[in-house]
Design a protein that fits this description.
By secondary structure, this protein is an alpha/beta fold. It contains five helices and nine strands; from the N terminus they run βββαββαβαβαβαβ.
Amino acid sequence: MLNLQQAEFIRSAVSEKDFPRDGLPQFVFAGKSNVGKSSVLNRLLRRKNFARVGAQPGKTVHINFFLIDKQTYFVDLPGYGFAKVSKAEQNRWGELMQIYFDSGLLSCGVQIVDIRHAPTKDDATMANWFRASGMPWLVIANKLDKIKKSQLQGCLDVIRQTLLLPEEVPVIPFSAEKGDGRETVLDMLIAHMGKDAYKS
């Protein structure tokens, strides 16, 4: 059993020495700066402002670690692909993320994309990092509430084809606004932990 109500912010990591190394699973959330990553995390945890939602994209400049029920971490990577951030800052973020991926701490990846648009080059780079890690990952196609039902399958096909996703990587339609897809995502994460239930 995983109690999602027992969620606490642990730290913002600016270097490898800040990464928790206590053997607990680490579920890593990654996405473009304006894709609604914080909103997805807030929806999964049923908390309004747990993961900060900034009016200005690109506010997450460190790797943030949240401890869930003292059993697992939700790891919030810096948002990528925000043009107004300096090249030096983008490179610093990229280096920090690469260090994390090389650390061997990743248990399962969660990549968040915008269901309305074809994934970008930055999205493809992120998918390559998850693929290279050799660990399971899933893709959340956020902003489901912004498209028509008739567009759904076509949008999912574009995401899968553009990111060159292996068959075993699911693409889950999701709405941080309305909660669609929440149970599916949580069920998959719990399965990767070897757990069979959670308190919503």
